[in-house]
Amino acid sequence: MMLRRKRRARERRRIAEEAAEWVMLLENADSDDTGSHEDRIELERRFTQWVRQSTLHLKEFMELHEAYCELNEIDIRDLVDVRALAELPAAEVVNLFDELGAKQTAECCDAGESTRRRRAVTWGIAATVACALVGGSYLWVSQSSTLYTTVVGEQHSSKLEDGSLVILNTDSKVKVRYTSSQRDLQLLQGEALFDVGGDSRRPFVVEAGDVAVTALGTRFNVYRHDLLTDISVAQGAVRISAGARASARVNAGEQAQVDGGRITIRGNANIAAALAWRERKLIFEDMPLPAVVKELNRYNRGKVVLMGDVGEGKRVSATFENDDPQSLVDFLKSEWGLRGKLEGEDWIVSAR
Question: Looking at the domain assignment, is residue 132 inside a domain?
């Protein structure tokens, strides 16, 4: 019995990984203008062949589609008609769609429910939801826990056994351990967005150092800095515990910052700015320049280096692509007349 369960779990992980790879293949096909019509037809044939293999293949694909509908707030493009999947002749696929896919498509795709057209899978920013880079890696630590990691400049999405999504930002690590009574996750480094699947029997708890965040049916972001932790709640609520005494509830639209044993909550927060990293954007609002540079640098191997005291007294309100440090350098040139020089991979910023 135990061996069969493990084999089923391995098989489901394999199919989930293949579903994420298909997201990237279709995204690349959409953005590559050099591909021929014949190449596109062949890709669609292979995709159809893959999705028809079993109900689980379609289920994994549909759940990524649902995640798109929920997690992204930009216009979408029509590439794969999800309703068309229901018309595939494989009976097992049709049955699954009737049970699961039609419900998801109706929720996400009905134009009457939204000002956006939801009748097709979103591929335009698949990198930020399904699997930003197929190179996003994980390794088995033991039979009971898994370590998911990303390197600098990489983002990666993983669907857990209960249907929860964990989306890792750049240079991040999260350790996942599920038991029969608890869903424990440790954010060892960096930042992650958690979209929690319902399971009233097993609390979903994310630990970041001395901070514990318990989901109360929710979607939330945790950013572990060197000395403090930021929690942004996009949906539902969380319960935060810090140390032996401090505890607070944080609701949707609120942010909390934990510094030592102190919890500070800010209402009416800009959650969109906190989650803009999923679209590879960084939104700064009246932030000190050195902090802006530090945040941008964690996405890039080539760094922006502020020489001397050029960062003192300067505050930034602007939006940048997180993989484009030159855009920050250009901003500093136009805003304060600073000088930027490329040395190797690094931008050296100094006074003129």
Answer: no
Cα 223 to Cα 99: distance, rounded to the nearest angstrom: 37
pLDDT tens-digit profile of 180-194? 899 999 999 999 999
Residue with the larger pLDDT of the pair 282 and 161: 282
One-character DSSP codes across 223-250: EE-SSEEEEEEEESEEEEEETTTEEEEE
Q: What is the CATH number of the domain that holds 184?
A: 2.60.120.1440
Query: CA 63 to CA 65: how far, in whole Å?
Result: 5
In a shared domain, residues 105 and 20: yes
pLDDT tens per residue across span 230-246 = 999 999 999 999 977 78
Nearest to 147 by CA among 182, 179, 188, 183: 188
Please, are residues 188 and 171 in contact by the beta-carbon 8 Å criterion? no
CA-CA-CA-CA dihedral for 85, 91, 92, 98, to nearest 10 = 60
DSSP states along 110-162:
-GGG-SS--SB---TTGGGTTTS-TT-EEEE-SSSEEEEE--TT--EEEE-TT
What is the band of 96 on the pLDDT scale with cuts at 50, 70, 90? very low
